[in-house]
């Protein structure tokens, strides 16, 4: 692993390790990525094998156990070997941000950030490492426990038997949060019911199960046809989840399985109460986000009144508009902020894509030009740009600020933080 930074004054710095050196092993343990470095540097005595100016070097460093070695290594991401028929990265237009096409399937990222993996690219060493270093919980995309169905969905005839993989890891104490992306007529009905029953055998190591509808863009010309989840199918899936929740709650004391927010939107059904989501184990997977927002709005209504006196425009997708209405009323009643909501049609990906964070720069401009009102502040959805402030269609946030004659902010995932910014801006 190539070293990209050595912290001044650190044990590595004092030992003469330099930026650009490559670290090979610590205490005979291979350094393959950031997590292996974190795992290996916890000892007080480090026998380090590294490369400096093209030559292998060996050095021993003694330090406090709770002191870091003081080096940062370059990122190495394990890439996806699948060709999923529903993969979002394979449904992108040519001008989309290049980084979106980099498909990871990395168990270290799954452990560190909660990204979902398929376990299709593991070596024997990877399996042993996951167990020995206790990379748990991991986040696992299953889609189907029927191997033929799963191989078709993943576009990978070499995909290993998923139940054997789960059995190996759970028998060694590794836990999983799991998801099923539902493609109608492929992995719904008896396929999903059998899959859930198969997973029950691995409780309590299966911490949660989410049921998510497939997301389809208009860029699918070279991909197999997939039918979108209909209102009736969404209602059937929600009913199935409710039945399993009742069964699991009675037998194990926890609901275990949850329908995603988007399923309730497609079904036209009310978002469940707070108790439905228990401790929100799949929050970052779009399960319980809306309910969490609704609970936040309830708490904001208890704040002291304040006269911010602003005219606001909240931008969102069509799916989330109705859930912002209560927030707009709250901003008016509590903070004297006249608030309009502008739902943006997603022409970029297609009207079936309603996720607010996937609204493009061009669609925002088109939407704002369609209204004549002026505003003191425009609030964009959370995560609508990346860390470089680039929209999904590769335009910069600064371009938007330069084009519009008012202040613009990107909302936080917390309504509380967004509200504080609104009334203080």
TrEMBL record:
Record InterPro entries: Aldolase_TIM, DUF512, PDZ, PDZ_sf, Put_radical_SAM-like_N, rSAM_sf
Domain PDZ intervals: 1-36
Pfam families linked: DUF512, PDZ, Radical_SAM_2
Protein's recorded name: DUF512 domain-containing protein
Organism encoding this protein: candidate division TA06 bacterium
